[in-house]
Amino acid sequence: MPVILTDIVSYKRLTAAGNSKFYYEDLDVTAGTMVELAAASGGIDTTDQLQMFELHQKVFIVNGAKLRVADFVNIRFTHSALATTHAHNDILTQAITGAVAIVDFTDVAKTHTYAFVVSGTFTPASNAISGSGSGTTFTPTGINGKLTHIALATAHAAADVLTQATSNATMTVEYTDVAKTHTWGRITNGTFNTTNQVTGSGSGTAFTPTATDTSPPLMYDWTVYGDGASGSMPTKVYLGCAYRGRAVLSGNPNYPGQWYMSRQNNPWDFQYVASDAQTAIAGGDFEAGKLGDIVKALIPFRNDFLIIGCANSMMIIIGDPAEGGTPNAFDQTTGIFGPNSWCYDGAGNLWFWGSNGLYMATLPNSPVCVSLQSLPNLVKDEAASQSTHRIIMGYDRIRNGLLITITTIADGTNSDYFYDLFTQGFFPELYPEECGVYSQCFYASNTEANRDLLIGCKDGHIRRFDETKSDDDIGGSDELINSYVTFSALPLFDEEQEGVISSLDVVTGGGQTGDNTDSNNISYKIWAGPTAESTLERLDNDSTPNLAGTIYASSIRGRGSRDPRKTRGVYATIKLYNNTISQTWSFEKLNIHVEED
Fold first, then answer.
1. Which of 114, 205, 400, 411 is the most exposed place for a label (fewest CB within 10 A)?
2. What is the pLDDT of residue 145?
3. What would the pLDDT profile of 49-72 be if each residue is shown by its tens digit?
4. What is the distance between the alpha carbons of residues 40 and 50, in angstroms, rounded to a whole number?
5. CB neighbourhood size of 324 (10 A)
């Protein structure tokens, strides 16, 4: 008997919010193509704090008083207000078409039901739908859909009625995308086909659909279930995550120490009175209670732990709070800076920006500050304020390090660090203001070329790091990269004795005759003095050096030029750099020839 192997692929798509709009990766067009979900327009406000998280193939948006859902799995039935809603997980059946769907959510007005289609194709207008429970039978007055077509000369306006005479199908238009290649709306009759022409009641161009779909992305308000027995959600929150199949909320300005969890596997149920193990639960109903601190971040780790980061302390919940989960103090000496000032590395270690700098924890053990020894004044030097700055952290799987970005929200000015997990070293970085980082995400795309650490920038672009480029992309043009390395406070001779640097010899990088990129010229500066601190101070102030010049890259064996000029001192600090547009540089070896004075 033959063995048949069939790949099961989990498809991923990127979503993003910017300029108070919501975008998603349209895999039907091409991987990496972002399109606007116009139904979200006006429904979110990116000038206010916003978080998004994925749960049950939907994106839940937490944006103060604006709580929204971008739904990528359900269809939407529009109908008259139901006397009794169909319960979550009821089975809907349209007998005449044989279509079957599982109910997910009914809104508070009871005029829209969202369900996952198991089989068949539902049709509106004349065919009743009944449910497996006590919900009211209804005939949908519309089913949301999408028509794909060639780019229209004139888009159909909202509320236009599209008609495909041959199939007797009609649609009330809701919006058309910027490319004018997709029209979304509420199908009010029949089933559109890809053979016959569609005309509109307004001035929009006639077209023949190239594809039809009744499962487009949908955007709607995130509320409790419309059955009147699902409790209530906080009216304003700023923090959200998914944990153990629950939607978790916090950041309520009126109750800053409170947190809320939906019923397990039902993000529409916030009724806190049930006694079963899957019940919704809030901090006031749990052994930990409301926290005596301001909640700043929700940090889930798989289904094992939920860390609640606060302004001055951190708590960890182990397991499920409604089924014997236990709360513990994670750390009572440090808090966390902000909602996204954390990340996990490839080994599952938690990293976050806390009161004294960069912390690491192997869960469930308490965190340790890793920057205290190498950069003891890191927090003081950065002087970041939660009212004016955004500190974002991300794990770069490709480059095996952490990207820590500290960005001024108003203008995009920034001070950033790459923490190399291999060398455990900090590398300061500075990006153009246009590239000031407002968000980070490592996108594990199904398309390998798109798999990378992505950064959402001040100017609305999503960027990635590209080792093949020599300059930073700032939108309409490029900006040079000023890169450097310093060798600080080198003693030139023994026992505080003055020495003389007689020459500087640099072996530049590149294969010269191979495939590796050859280095461009390298500039240098040398500060020499009687003490180590004096040379470092002059480096920090970029004051006049004792020596300065250029190492000219050679085409012979990668050996650059040699500078025979001399300078003396007890200590010396050397800076190698290049700040020329469209140039890159590297070196293999720096030889400093020192003689006794």
1. 411
2. 94
3. 999 999 999 999 999 999 999 999
4. 14
5. 9
